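Box S2. Input/output pair 1.
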Amino acid sequence: MSAMVRKLLCADAEQQVALTSRGLDPTLLEAPWLTVCSRARAAREAIAASPAMEEAIVLSSEEVEGINLAAALKVDAPACRVYLAACEETGSVRSRLAAAHLDGVLSLDEVVRRLSAEIVPDTAAIAADDASGRGREEERAGGFLLTVVSGSGGAGKSTVAAMLAHGAARRGLRCALVDADLQFGDLGEIGAADAHVSLDALAEDSALLPEVSAGEVALIEAPGRPELAEVLAESLDRAVQEALGRFDFVVVDTGGSWNEQQVRLLERSAAVVFLIDQRASSVRACRRALDLCLRCGVATSSFVLVLNRCGRHAPFTSIDVSSALQGAPVIELADGGREVEELLGAASAPALFASGNDLCASVDRLLGELLPRGTALCQGVAQEGVIARWGLKGARAREKKHMRRASRRRSRAQCDEIRVPLGEGR
């Protein structure tokens, strides 16, 4: 390979020894065209600092599972070919490879051959890479995938997910709503869709996926029997992929627990709405979840942090939660009051959104910020912006307002200090 072509090798000390034992010249690990990293953070910094990086090979790292690091690198540099190496190719791994749009799995011997060749891959290999790249771009160019998550249960995920889907439908999009809480999901009970099918039925016959017109919502319900949740986890991945190919906008409502299935959803989503409610435990759970993403190499650049049930008498504001999350920008959703529970309890989700309720109005504003990014996100463009473009702007405005109020309070306090001595003097 010419010196102008850049490669990244992610391998801890043990894997580097394994490569040399299989015939790799140790001096190649110091070649100018190759960057070798043993830690996940160093690997992500290296690929971010080298826009011309053409290929990354991930064997392992000292603190993050290889497949999680590979997925994060692909998000950081979509144009770079990213391969996972020295990994047993199980069904779960293949599913995660597809979800993260990785370019393949290599054996240790294949890694040695690639690094030892120092030539540009042959024309056939380039053509195959280009074809697979076009396939991945076509896959990403399908529907816009939005996942709603939280660090704990009871944050209002199902309500917000349903309102996001109906908001997109009112904008003329063909929408699918997927209930990924496979044990206790209840989107089918709140009248959240114009047509529906259960996941267990869809797993047996993919042709059952409903067809809807523009402005309508189709629902993939959780299975009727909670004991099928683990069995149907793989079917959920296929159902989401099928929905992305047939709908403009796909909203996935997740359960309260985090597992491998949820990580795969996060990795493939164009945007992730991370919901926090008005409990201190929810804020702590969010902090732990974000730390988990960092340690597992799950990219969080597509996350939008959202504080639910905000109002005059709510215990927290977005500034409070932002302070607890080290300054991360947080968006507020208004408390919809009793009307939300009443209409959802009557299975009238469309009527709730049409009512212009405060919650629905704030969800619609959030949706207005997410949707314009849809095309760029699905095509793999850098995903920095959803938080920065809306949340940070709102947070700064609220911070200025907070500072003005604090200044007025200090002024009143100073006036009180002056009046007290005057009164005593009389």
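Box S3. Input/output pair 2.
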Amino acid sequence: MAGSLDRDAYLRLLEHGNEESLAAFLMRLAASQGNDLQEETLLIIRRLAKECWWEKKDFGELLLCLGMPASSWAVDAEPSTATDPLSGTSTTVQSEIPPPPDDAAEESKTLSFVVEPSAGSALGGTTVSWMRGPIPIELRFGNRHAAPLRGGQFLAPYHEGAEDVDVIAVFEDGVKVCYASAFSYYTPGVLEAMTPATGGTMGGMQVEVTTSDLGAEICQVVLGEKECQLLGRPSRTRAAFLCPPCEEEGAVPLLVVASNSNRVLAKAAFVYADTMCFGAVGTSVEVAEDATQARKGKGVMDGVCLSAQPIRRTATGHFFQIRVDEMGPKNMRGLALGVAQLQPQDLLNAKRPRPQEATGLSRAWLLGYDRGGALFIEPSASAAKLPTGSWRPVTDLK
């Protein structure tokens, strides 16, 4: 039967099928035993299909690779062979592979890699654990030997560049088995950009990080000691996330992890600055959210908003950030942002600035407003007009 999942169907696929049809057969076989075919499981099955196709594994060995008790299936009586890619010699692999130990029988529906983790840095030094039956006395990754450690662990050797390599196991009885493309080398990741690299301690700001090619999708971002909420679907080189809140100001490390275990760790990559609030504001301005939010009311004038405290210096310099949530009608003059050295004459009292617009402050550096293009205003100088196409506050801020 075309839909059979027995030994005969498997042998027919080895003779007349291909790697793709064999992988589909293994997926149906795994699903019939209640396996949850998640992305990681499908990757294991595809690797196993390639391994079975080239090594012509017998059905009993296949079942054990899938973690299924071979005793409940018809096992081939004839041995199969495995080829050592280094020497080109063939080694007999007996089908009478010992069944899984009793403590593993209950987990027979769980698939596993040959070694864990199944990926590591091309620089070498990744500690891997053997995951299949008897521990081999020798393990090779491609054409290089892995250093044996204790308890079935090995130290992966270095490799030239990012690539999938065969894992070759040599057992105490002389049997050699080649597991095709069972280990993936990746080039260690590097942080290329982080925008912005400074934010308020309240968090909630969208940040984007760019890395070198990690070899797999980014699956986790940790800022300081807090895992961040990812936005959208990350790629192998980029991820957007929400900056978590932080109790203290200062620089924190960034950790970016890909699904193949490749990672980027950058110390002092992001700087938290204390959240500022508004102090003196014009009569047509209303403040809310503990004075961290200001809204312009009716009228064109009296819309100056001053922070309640001076800008604080951080490791990367002086920093402040304004988020524009909503813009008013297009007939308004637009928005101007800047800094000022306040003088006594600039304040009417602690709650009211004296000037009706920011250009009236004694020493202020401003960028914005709108007269067919944004203006740059500095003390003791005439306003310089920015090119119309570069920024128009009244139309570009929406």
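Caption for Box S3: The chain has four domains: 7-105, 115-186, 191-273, 278-396. The chain has a mean pLDDT of 77.
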